Amino acid sequence: MNLKAKREQRENKDNIQQFSLVRKLSIFPTTNIVIANMIGAGIFTTSGLLIKDLGHPLVMLALWAVGGIIALCGALSYGILASAMPEAGGEYIFLSKLFHPLFGFLSGWVSFFVGFSAPIAASAIGVSEYLIRAFPGVVGGETTPGLLIVFKKLLAILIVALFTGIHLRGIELGAKVQNLLTIVKVSLIVGLIILGFSLGEGQISNLFTFSQFKFDLSGWKTIGLCLMWIMFAYSGWNAAAYIGSEVKKPEKNLPYSLLLGTGVVIFLYLGLNLLFIYAIPLEEMKGVISVGGLAGGKLFGPVAGRVISIIIAFALFSSLSAFIILGPRVYYAMARDGYFLRWAAFVHPTFRVPTKSILIQGLIAIIFITWGTFEQILTYMGFSLGIFPLLAVAGVFKLYHQQGLRRKIKMIGFPIVPLLYIFAGVLILILGFLERPIPSTVAILTVLAGLPIYFLFARDTCH
After folding, report:
1. Fewer CB within 10 A of the terminal residue: the chain, N end or C end?
2. Of 415, 398, 44, nearest to 232 (Cα)?
3. How far apart are CA 73 and CA 96, in angstroms?
4. What secondary structure letter does DSSP report for 339?
5. The whole model's pTM is what?
6. Any idea what DSSP says for residue 373?
7. CA nearest neighbour of 206 among 60, 373, 314, 395
8. pLDDT values of the chain reduced to their tens digit, one per residue, 463 residues
């Protein structure tokens, strides 16, 4: 190591010792971060794809309810973990302390590419798609398809850069922006559901128009794949655990925010899917990704397509902002422990946020936008995000049996709740792999690629 590198390492170490994350967030902004992190691209893109595979609206609604129950079991389990270990980092902290730093590192490695950077890119691409749909005149009528794609990517990159800049200015400003975006998003979704059922032109009979669904091996593989997509839409139920070092009264506010946020999102998701089915005949819904815009057009007429597009754009703004808040706290925690690039633990002395982690996350997201499509990013994320939460929830049992903690842990439904989450999660991964082996294998390879990187950092840490 040369003299300059040693000096930079020493400066970063001094920064970590002098500046740390500060507990400034109450239960309201923490719950908002959970809600914003959950409601994103998944709910607005998957229902048409689910109907195409299932062919049965009632089965689809049942799976959305099952996914919500699984997410709620995960949130209850994470509430216990976050109360016992109220630090920034989420699964990285839980797995490192309860099992081994290797598992914590691999969860952070996956989070770096799949958990945060990829969803930021997907959300930004989604925002650009819906904004262009809402305001087609911005790009002009003579734009070629190639130029239109370039314009959408540039707009997505600009969006990532804008929100990265906002969150570089500190958690308080970021939380205020997040609160506003989340309130607007939830209000718009609730308004859409109420107006859709009260004033929209739909058919309740759409619920009972379906093709027969067989619960054979093929049917169960389809269910596993569909639940994998649905759990991607629910991903974020664990969001508050990633900012544990910045939450006031974490032993109380962390579990409550996880439960409240997840509960609100379950009701919103079921309401939205009921509205989609009410608005759109089965055959017209199959395979449609922009199902929200189609539903708005069916309910209120063609002009509503633009309005719904703006609503979805706001929803994706909020989730994108939440991802940008959460991800850098994982990289910060890993770097602080010596298992990631050391400078990623740098905390700005004025704004008290992990500045360099925020910047590198934004850069990776921009690379995803440049080289990938929305569909490619979305498919890749489904399998990847289901692996390490399973290990973290399994850690509840180890935590429970640690000396001195058994009497302190009070968990609703223990041990049924974590066992249900683990059983359902493993089954979804197995069935999803059988149905879509190629993207699932790529996700597994992403995890394995982190092994040599871990041992490289571990060697440097030992030295």
Report:
1. C
2. 44
3. 22
4. S
5. 0.79
6. -
7. 60
8. 454 555 555 555 554 444 566 777 788 888 887 887 788 778 887 898 899 889 899 999 999 999 999 998 998 888 888 878 877 677 888 898 889 889 988 988 887 778 788 888 888 887 887 788 778 777 665 567 678 888 888 999 999 999 888 888 776 666 677 677 778 778 888 988 999 999 988 899 988 877 778 888 899 999 998 998 899 889 878 877 777 777 788 777 888 888 898 999 999 999 999 999 999 998 999 887 778 878 888 898 888 878 887 878 877 787 788 778 777 877 777 777 777 777 777 887 777 778 888 888 899 899 888 887 776 777 778 888 888 999 999 998 888 777 555 555 566 778 899 999 999 999 999 998 888 888 888 889 989 999 998 888 777 655 5
User: Within the chain, what is the greatest distance between any pair of CA atoms?
Assistant: 74
Residue 243: what are its φ and ψ, rounded to 5°?
-120, 30
Residues 440 and 448: beta-carbon distance below 8 Å: no
Task: Please name which of 390, 383, 386 lies closest in space to residue 439, comparing C-alpha atoms.
Answer: 383
CB distance 163 to 296 below 8 Å: no
The answer to whether the beta carbons of residues 346 and 360 sit under 8 Å apart is no
Provide the token pair at 351: 């704004």
Chain-centroid distance, C-alpha 420: 21
% helix, strand, coil for the chain, step of 5: 80, 0, 20
Radius of gyration over every alpha carbon of the chain, rounded to an integer in angstroms? 22
CA distance 229 to 183: 25
Distance between CA atoms of 210 and 227, rounded to whole angstroms? 19
The tokens describing 422, both together, are: 């683990």
